[in-house]
């Protein structure tokens, strides 16, 4: 099971994601931003970081790189794509998931543990959770406030993946902090499941995101 | 022919602008009670093109593809021939 981990100048969670993918038995592979040929991969993860220094808007410049054409190709082949933090911002900028992740309501970098509610389990990444299960994962971002101009459609299509529970640390619309496309195969989440994948880190609640990918690939 | 281009990008009406809100609060700390504080990004560059219409078309394209996010931004383009 070959899972690509995309790297841009400024990515900084790539090695964490690579490490967790190995933990769950996948064969991770780093993919640099200028590669387009991703057809050999079974899934791809866009990790967190500050691609291109977050200049212009977080994710805006990474969104126009050749590797994102490769990612669009994988989406057409119905392979799972997960964007974490900066990866989520990039997927929103490309338009592979609806809405935008913009400057936090209180405009500072916010790094803390959060409680989250899993709102849909139809994505490969959340298939091993229970619907409405409460999990713990950290956030670490300055531009994570989710906004969409079509909230009703998002709920109607079951595209809300994660919602903040008990607090809304960045002012996201209805506390939404993870969304997917209509198919559920492209998923963008602001919290970091890779930073909550081993008990020694304080929570292992996030590991199911990665185990879910493996299970989905082995079923296909 | 060379043109000076200015793109002004601001948040759509009604969108929360945390930067502007912070500035307004800071001004209040200094005793200045102001309202409707707003911020915008201004991007300037020069372009070589046959005519103004072509410049406009290309800059519109830039705004749609990179400079703005249509979900949250409005933009205004100003083009002037270089003196």
UniProtKB/TrEMBL annotation, chain A:
Catalytic site: 85, 192, 194
Keyword Hydrolase: yes
Cellular localisation: Cytoplasm
Superkingdom classification of source: Archaea
EC number from the UniProt entry: 6.3.5.3, 3.5.1.2
Molecular function as annotated in GO: ATP binding; glutaminase activity; phosphoribosylformylglycinamidine synthase activity
Entry GO CC: cytoplasm
Quaternary state and interactors: Part of the FGAM synthase complex composed of 1 PurL, 1 PurQ and 2 PurS subunits.
Function noted in UniProt: Part of the phosphoribosylformylglycinamidine synthase complex involved in the purines biosynthetic pathway. Catalyzes the ATP-dependent conversion of formylglycinamide ribonucleotide (FGAR) and glutamine to yield formylglycinamidine ribonucleotide (FGAM) and glutamate. The FGAM synthase complex is composed of three subunits. PurQ produces an ammonia molecule by converting glutamine to glutamate. PurL transfers the ammonia molecule to FGAR to form FGAM in an ATP-dependent manner.
Name of the molecule in the record: Phosphoribosylformylglycinamidine synthase subunit PurQ
Classification lineage: Archaea, Methanobacteriati, Methanobacteriota, Methanomada group, Methanobacteria
UniProtKB/TrEMBL annotation, chain B:
Pathway note: Purine metabolism; IMP biosynthesis via de novo pathway; 5-amino-1-(5-phospho-D-ribosyl)imidazole from N(2)-formyl-N(1)-(5-phospho-D-ribosyl)glycinamide: step 1/2
GO terms for biological process, alphabetical: 'de novo' IMP biosynthetic process
Lineage: Archaea, Methanobacteriati, Methanobacteriota, Methanomada group, Methanobacteria
Cell compartments where the protein resides: Cytoplasm
Complexes and interactors: Part of the FGAM synthase complex composed of 1 PurL, 1 PurQ and 2 PurS subunits.
Task of the protein: Part of the phosphoribosylformylglycinamidine synthase complex involved in the purines biosynthetic pathway. Catalyzes the ATP-dependent conversion of formylglycinamide ribonucleotide (FGAR) and glutamine to yield formylglycinamidine ribonucleotide (FGAM) and glutamate. The FGAM synthase complex is composed of three subunits. PurQ produces an ammonia molecule by converting glutamine to glutamate. PurL transfers the ammonia molecule to FGAR to form FGAM in an ATP-dependent manner.
Keyword vocabulary terms for this entry: ATP-binding, Cytoplasm, Ligase, Nucleotide-binding, Purine biosynthesis
Enzyme class: ligase
Cellular component aspect of the GO annotation: cytoplasm
GO molecular function: ATP binding; phosphoribosylformylglycinamidine synthase activity
Major site of localization recorded for this protein: cytoplasm
Cross-referenced NCBIfam families: phosphoribosylformylglycinamidine synthase subunit PurS, PRK05974.1
Domain of life the protein comes from: Archaea
Family in the record: Belongs to the PurS family.
Cited Gene3D superfamilies: Phosphoribosylformylglycinamidine synthase subunit PurS (3.30.1280.10)
Annotated catalysed reactions: N(2)-formyl-N(1)-(5-phospho-beta-D-ribosyl)glycinamide + L-glutamine + ATP + H2O = 2-formamido-N(1)-(5-O-phospho-beta-D-ribosyl)acetamidine + L-glutamate + ADP + phosphate + H(+)
Protein name: Phosphoribosylformylglycinamidine synthase subunit PurS
E.C. number(s) listed in UniProt: 6.3.5.3
């Amino acid at each position: 099971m070959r899972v690509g981990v995309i790297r841009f100048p400024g990515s900084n969670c790539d090695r964490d994601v690579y490490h967790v993918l190995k933990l769950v038995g996948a064969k991770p592979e780093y993919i640099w931003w200028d590669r387009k040929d991703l057809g050999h991969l079974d899934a791809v993860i866009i990790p967190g970081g500050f691609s291109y220094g977050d200049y212009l808007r977080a994710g805006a410049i990474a969104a126009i790189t050749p590797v994102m054409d490769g990612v669009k190709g994988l989406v057409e082949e119905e392979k799972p794509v997960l964007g974490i933090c900066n990866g989520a911002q990039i997927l929103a900028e490309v338009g592979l998931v609806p809405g935008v992740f913009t400057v936090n309501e209180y405009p500072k970098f916010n790094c803390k543990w959060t409680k989250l509610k899993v709102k849909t389990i139809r994505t490969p990444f959340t298939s091993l959770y229970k619907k409405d299960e409460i999990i713990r994962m950290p956030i670490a971002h300055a531009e994570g406030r989710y906004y969409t101009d079509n909230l009703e459609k998002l709920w109607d299509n079951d595209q809300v993946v994660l919602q903040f529970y008990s607090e809304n640390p960045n002012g996201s619309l209805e506390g939404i902090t993870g969304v997917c496309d209509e198919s559920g195969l492209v998923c963008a989440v602001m919290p970091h499941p890779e930073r909550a994948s081993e008990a020694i880190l304080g929570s292992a609640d996030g590991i199911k995101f990665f185990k879910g990918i493996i299970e989905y690939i082995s079923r296909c | 022919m060379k043109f000076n281009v200015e793109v002004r990008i601001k948040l759509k009406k009604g969108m929360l602008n945390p930067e502007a809100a912070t500035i307004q609060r800071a001004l209040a700390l200094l005793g200045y009670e102001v309202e409707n504080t707003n911020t915008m990004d201004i991007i300037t560059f020069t372009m070589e093109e046959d005519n103004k219409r072509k410049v406009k078309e290309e800059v519109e394209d830039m705004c749609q593809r990179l400079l703005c996010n249509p979900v949250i931004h409005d933009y205004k383009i100003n083009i002037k021939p270089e003196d």
